[in-house]
Amino acid sequence: GAILVVSGADGPMPQTKEHILLAKQVGVPAIVVFLNKADQVDDEELLELVELEIQETLTTYEYPGDEIPIITGSALLALESLTQDTIDNSNKWVQQIYHLMDTVDQYIPLPKRDTDKPFLMAIENVVSITGRGTVATGRVERGMIEVGQTVELVGLKTTKETIITGLEMFQKTLEKSVAGDNVGILLRGIQKDDIQRGMVLAKPASIRPHRHFQAQVYILKKEE
User: Fold this and answer.
1) Among 188, 180, 182, 179, which Cα is nearest to 169's?
2) Which residues, 6 or more positions from 211, have their beta carbon under 8 angstroms from its beta carbon?
3) Cα(79)–Cα(75) distance, rounded to whole angstroms?
């Protein structure tokens, strides 16, 4: 799911439509709208007109515009209510942020984690940690993995086997990771030059690299 932020003072902009189209193309199933900068609009009818325009725009791109929740608020005034790392819960703008997140929890379904298939993770970044080794980071696309298991490094270069010696997510050490996690994986015997973005880590013998493939491409129109 996604939160679409639209200025209440300006209404949907060209980039708003671009983001909705992109969300549709990549398969985002549900959207919640946050109508920001509501403090800059004195006329309630103007905000209602902006909401109608947002609903029409969402419907144009095959989202259920009439059903999608629209929460009004002011991110700046909510942020300014923070004092000494505490939140003024009585502030109406802070309450609207809570309302936004409650709506996200209720309206946007939890994604299904594809844990039954063989492990696969596309590598997004590589870092070298002195004294520990090479860490590959990315989002686990499917399956699950545990410390001590063997994986293959596939793509762009010769396929190599390596053993996972550590897992970490948001500075928390893990024993296992499952589909949907954004994780850092410490790899035994792999140098930083051996691995790069675009390669994948996978269960041994579960995939192989290809040089030729068929693809379906959507070309954006000039208006989009």
Assistant:
1) 182
2) none
3) 6
Q: Which helix (H) or strand (E) holds 72?
A: strand 70-72
What is this structure's pTM? 0.64
- Tens digits of per-residue pLDDT, 117-171? 999 999 999 988 877 788 999 999 999 999 999 999 998 888 889 999 999 998 8
Give the CATH number of domain 2-107; options: 3.90.550.10, 3.40.50.300, 3.40.50.80, 3.30.2380.10.
3.40.50.300
Q: Which two tokens stand for residue 114?
A: 């594809």
Q: Are 105 and 69 in contact (CB under 8 A)?
A: no
Q: Concatenated DSSP letters for 144-190? A: EEETT-EEEEEESEEEEEEEEEEEEETTEEESEEETT-EEEEEETT-
Kindly list the distances between the CA atom of residue 18 and the CA atoms of 35, 167, 172, 183, 211, in Å, as whole numbers in the listed order.
17, 36, 36, 29, 32
Class of domain 120-202: mainly beta
Angstrom CA distances, 63 to 56, 159, 204, 219, 220, stand at 9, 42, 40, 20, 18
For the chain, the C-alpha Rg in angstroms (whole number) is 22
Which DSSP state fits 202? E
Q: How many CA atoms lie within 13 A of 211 on its CB side?
A: 1
